[in-house]
Task: structure prediction
Amino acid sequence: MKLGNLVGERFKERPSDCVIDSHALMVRGAYIKFVASGIYSSFAPLKRIFHKIEAIVREEMDKIDGQEVSLPVVLPASLWEASGRCASVGQELVRFADRNKAPYLLGMTHEEAAVQLVRESALSYTAYPFMIYQIQTKFRDEARPRAGLIRVREFTMKDAYSFHTSQKDLDRFYGKCYQAYQKIYERVGLPEVIAVASGAGIMGGDISHEFMLLSAAGEDSIVICQSCQYKANMEVAENIVENQKDELSYPLTQVYTPDVQTIDDLCSFFETTPDRLCKAVAYRKESDQGIVVLLLRGDYEVNEAKLKSKLGCEIRPAEIDDKSGLAAGYIGPYQLNASSDVFFDRSLENTCNLICGANKANYHYSGLDISRDIGDIGYIDVAKAVDGGICPGCGSHLLSVSRGIELGNIFQLGTKYTRSMGMTYLDENGQQQYPIMGCYGIGIGRLAACICEARHDAFGPIWPMAIAPWQVHLCAVRADNIEVKTLADRIYSELTNRSIEVIYDDRKVSAGVMFSDADLLGVPLRVIISPRNIKENKCEVVSRDKTLSLKIDMDQCVETVIGYVRNGK
RNA sequence: CGAGGUGUAGCGCAGUUGGCUAGCGCGCCUGCUUUGGGAGCAGGAUGUCGGGGGUUCAAGUCCCUUCACCUCGACCA
Result:
């Protein structure tokens, strides 16, 4: 198509509310148009990118025997009541009533709808296994959309659901899907995406992986071992601490510490380091409003995700008042008010001579030896893994913590949904069984944004050939020159006739404008027809990533370009 | 939900202790000149100053209220 007809205004100034580059470039290049917080319309270039990504996703899903289906966006609330999620999921689920006041909701994930679709169609074990998938709009009323297309409320997602008659078969398929995902990220131009072990979140289930692009703009923390294959989301990363007890355990001694509350203050007061402190953090459980006190070594942070899953309920930081019986800033394990649940983190195992709060204002203890002073207690793992920490996989001290953007996930769901929704089949022995499920998601828009985030320069995105909105950007520099125009028109129609996707710029604008717009559109191959080139009977073929720049004879132009396109240049 | 910030033309912004017809750059339209990295000159169009209420002779500016958006946190497949 001709660039002059492409609707959408490109401009050079960076929009003030864009924090990350992919967002700024997508606005500047007229890929997206803001509609409301976390809600965008897409212009043609982005829609074309979506089509290509979706085509790749479809191919890879079909290769592992996926069947594309379509599930509704609007679902009756009763479907989610059956699984229990109507109650368990919070405000991100949009609920509304139809004209008859019947409750409905907007699908944010489709396990229930998937089970509902196939429930009566797979009554015999011979129907298994199978996988259904769809590519569809989801709506999640996120508390805080951000970063352009990275975190939005309305988005397109490929979601897939597989059904199996044994854990072994689910394991097998899970592995195939894992590989299919890696293939997808490779094909769309992000081979550096890694898989990390993750938590279940609202999906429920056991084993799960997230596919992550390491990026400073990421919202997740990822723990990676530099020496083995261990990779995990911070939410589930095990934290291992190996302490050596001092030879001498000093007696527990109360010390007057006026107005010394923070870790920093304590360290300077006692002239010591945070690892010699026993820190206390208090939470309130949402389930019964009970207080939980967590004790951990002063140089570690609480991993609230791990704590939540240990407690099995939501938590929030406890506001410490008089009623709680806790002395804010001076909480310690020794003679702690017994009305709280108390947990000791692993980081305190095998320690002595610690400093801790004395449970009364302005006093601390020194010389704490937990096994001597508190007794024989169990330790749990609720601290955040740290840079340089011990790897649970290989035991090296080579853990590093990075930021990452989640580009997809795969879950083993077990029978949570089939059981709650009464989906059964008869096995070889005529026994009624619940199928075991897996589910697999990829956000299409977020993937496009991440490709832009990972593949751009100061002037615009550098789209990989496989997903670029067009394959070739044809520039007729000085289109007012009849010779240029005639030649460029001819090249355009020849390339188009050979099924090459060409965006053709024959506007009567200066070269600067033309090239800047081309940079913003990020098309991988650029062909330049200009009076200067025509004089030598040449045309120019350059790549957006600047790795290729050649002048070739005009009559070889079409073949050369087609060659590069086919090679995925 | 907590804390902070911003709303003035399509975009980026200025607008002082309230004061005349609300400006600048980019973009847009017309004409002429230019033409290999966002051209020059001349002319032109475009504003409920986020909304509502108030104070005042007078409000973009002060007060109250409300909405939207952004950032950090909380939350989150």
